[in-house]
Amino acid sequence: MKIKRAMRVWQRHFAVYTKLYKSSIALNFIEPVLYLVALGFGLGAFVKEVHGKTYIQFIAPGIIASSSMFAATYESTYGTYVRMTFQKTFDAILATPVNIDDLVAGELIWAATKSVFYGAIIIVAISIFGLVESPLVVMLLPVLFVGGFIFAEISMVCVAVVPGIDSLNYYYTLFMTPMFLFSGIFFPLDPLPPFVTHIAYFTPLFHLTNICRSFAAGNFLGVTGDIIWLCVAALVLVPWPFRLMKRRIVR
Amino acid sequence: MNIVVAKGLTKDYNGLRAVNGVDFEIRRGECFGFLGPNGAGKTTVMRVLYCFIEPTSGDIEVFGINVKDKPALIKSQLGVMPQDENLDLELSVIENLIVYARYFDMPKRKAMSVANELLSYVELSGKARANIKSLSGGMKRSLLLARALLNNPAILILDEPTTGLDPHTRQAVWKKLNDLKVRETTLILTTHYMEEADRLCDRVAIMDQGKIIAVDSPGHLKEMHGGNLEEVYLKLTGRPLED
């Protein structure tokens, strides 16, 4: 794998994205903001305080994590699938000096970049609402990259094994949605039976949410374990998208 | 001098043998065609040749390099015009070429001038800023040809270059390919049009069910077996070329 050639793929996706962002950014931006407003103000009217914060203050940093997660996941599920199967973009790219490993690396790095971008938009948005306590929240950007990379890795593994695009719905329903709901974004997990927390511990979103919440409060030290968890997970998962995409494409 | 040498090339797909132990040699500067109906294994041979898939067994060398060893090096000197229109639909005509040139590490300024030159070669200069969706089928094929020529390839691989084109556009593509032959680019194509093989190819490999039945010049094949290439195909395989 050559990082320079992987970046050629990244550049291609960026060039395409600059044409499409006007239509897609609204979707990616409006949905998290809707959650924030509907739950933060709507449900928040009935919830007094969570861990010493107003309800909207509590959920806002978690929305950075979820928005960032969905950005990488959409990109590496539907985006990758369409490029691979319907648009035959991969065939075009692989006829050049770019090899399959370069291509997969480019896809992953691009998806992680989108995670940073969509996380950053939410950071700006909740800062405007005054829901961030510390300007050091910008330190989240590299963490979002690592998180996005993990979601991209898992998504690409999924794309490499599904028989058709419709099967991706299972991934969303059985994995993404439960993770979104039970990662501590909307409520602390401690009052639930302990097994919920145990399961959540094995999902990247749980750790990313912890980190976002902690950084937004200006606290960097309490989440070292979560950061290590993400970095280790990102590294451990690396071989799988490469191996499985190779099998899928050049079998 | 041989630019491609294949020995015992075999490729299995999900337990099915798509290409079954074929041997062939392609000479520098010639136009070599794989002739056969859909499913004969032509596209699979091409895909191994441009390092998209690895052979199950056997060897194939391009420029004297084994495709398993240095695919990126081989691909840097190949041009591929695929059967599918896999252009970047969101990008304009010229942007498609610029983005593609980057895969070959071409500096932007050079990419720009080569792209403009090629657009005028394929008569698309007036469409440089146009949306891909606004192009006709023939124009898309022309753009795919221009894209395949960006790196000034030593070998141009064409998978069914004129399938689905109207007779007029087909003639125009043939003319371009003949120009390239004059410039001594090695052309390797697959086709199931007898006339295409006859018009362009110096030699054709007749393929049937994953095997090469015969390799010779179209003229010699016709002389030996009588009739046109279609009849030659029928005689050699017992099957018509086009179903």
Assembly state (oligomeric) = heterodimer
Indicate the structural class of chain A.
mainly alpha
CATH topology of the largest domain in chain B: Rossmann fold
Number of beta strands of chain A: 0
- The CATH class of the largest domain in chain B is Alpha Beta
Helix/strand order of chain B, N-terminal first: EEEHEEHEHHHEHEHEEHH
Mean pLDDT of chain B: 92
Shape of chain A: globular
The percentage helix of chain A is over 70%
Secondary-structure-derived class of chain B: alpha/beta
**What are the low-pLDDT stretches of chain B, counting only 5+ consecutive residues below 50?**
none
Order of helices and strands of chain A: HHHHHHHHHH
Global morphology of chain B: globular
Rounded to an integer in angstroms, the radius of gyration calculated over CA atoms of chain B is 18 Å
* Cα radius of gyration of chain A in angstroms: 18 Å
The counted number of beta strands of chain B is 10
